[in-house]
């Protein structure tokens, strides 16, 4: 183990073993969803895929912070492999995720609140795309749109418009102007090769692949805002250390300890439990997720951004 901080060594070997095991489990689930005779078996395979591919995503998340492996090149290549199972570009994911850390719970990332002047239809469309998993589809589609039609950025960014501010498009798409386009395109070719290799090697059916990724989309997308919804409007403290069943938290590699992560983004997943403040409210994932279905709320009059 090599240190990412005085008390937080990177569990490099464990991470590599977990990534290999999770990728193998994902491949097995995809195969079963494509070849099982019974619909119930295919549904169970898709459900299992939605969890083990979140393990892969959690390791991708570690890579974006440089704490998957102490070697920068190994960290990035393992991150690219994990990104291929999302599927997305590793560099694009890192660019967007680090932008999220800079703007967390600012006006650019208050999707849970209706602010004065917001377009209510757009706000609700964004919100329910997160809850239903449609949000996931924007990632691979957006990657390939950027690779093929980079000029779309200026049209979609909405610079200086309420749309650009309300959706966060201005901040996020603006970061792509400085991103290494050639690297992103090469990573997307790698991702396509990995996905094509899975289809050919495992003889995957379109329905089996789609079933697994639809289940993953809903599972992944829901957590991406449940760990922030209704939390304080604070860049570092604006997240929850959600309570969830231990086996689920293990599969997500402590991703539910999200406030601890935002306060200590360089601490590897294995040690985040040490940084959970038990004196701060810790709602359950289920309670937050259920409350989200009621839709965005009016911005509290006493809300302050910090």
UniProtKB/TrEMBL annotation:
Annotated source species: Archangium lansingense
Protein name (Swiss-Prot/TrEMBL): Fatty acid desaturase
Pfam families xref list: FA_desaturase
E.C. number(s) listed in UniProt: 1.14.19.-
Any one Gene Ontology molecular-function term assigned to this protein's record: oxidoreductase activity
Domain of life per record: Bacteria
EC class name: oxidoreductase
Limits of the Fatty acid desaturase domain: 42-276
Keywords (A to Z) from UniProt: Membrane, Oxidoreductase, Transmembrane, Transmembrane helix
Stretches that traverse the bilayer: 12-33, 127-149
């Amino acid at each position: 183990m090599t240190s990412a901080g005085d008390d937080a060594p990177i569990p490099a070997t464990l991470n590599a073993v977990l990534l290999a095991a999770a990728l193998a489990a994902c491949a097995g689930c995809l195969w079963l969803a494509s070849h099982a005779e019974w619909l119930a078996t295919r549904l169970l395979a898709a459900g299992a895929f939605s969890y083990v591919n979140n393990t892969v995503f959690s390791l991708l998340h570690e890579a974006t912070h440089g704490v998957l492996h102490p070697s920068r090149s190994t960290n990035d290549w393992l991150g690219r492999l994990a990104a291929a199972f999302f599927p997305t570009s590793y560099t694009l994911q890192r660019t967007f995720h680090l932008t999220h850390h800079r703007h967390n719970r600012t006006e650019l990332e208050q999707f849970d609140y209706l602010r004065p002047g917001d377009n209510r239809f757009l706000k609700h469309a964004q919100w329910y795309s997160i809850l239903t998993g449609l949000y996931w589809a924007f990632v691979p589609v957006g990657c390939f749109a950027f690779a093929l039609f980079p000029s779309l950025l200026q049209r979609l960014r909405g610079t200086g418009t309420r749309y650009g501010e309300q959706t966060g498009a201005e901040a996020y798409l603006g970061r792509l102007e400085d991103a290494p386009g050639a690297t992103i395109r090469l990573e997307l070719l790698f991702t396509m090769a990995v996905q094509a290799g899975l289809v050919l090697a495992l003889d995957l059916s379109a329905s089996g692949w789609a079933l697994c990724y639809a289940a993953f989309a809903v599972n992944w997308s829901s957590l991406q805002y449940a760990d922030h919804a209704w939390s304080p409007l604070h860049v570092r403290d604006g997240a929850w250390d959600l309570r969830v069943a231990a086996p689920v938290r293990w599969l997500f590699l402590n991703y539910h300890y999200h406030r601890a992560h935002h306060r200590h983004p360089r601490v590897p997943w294995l040690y985040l439990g040490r940084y959970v403040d038990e004196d701060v409210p810790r709602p359950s994932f289920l309670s937050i997720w259920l409350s989200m279905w009621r839709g965005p709320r009016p911005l509290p009059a006493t809300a302050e951004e910090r």
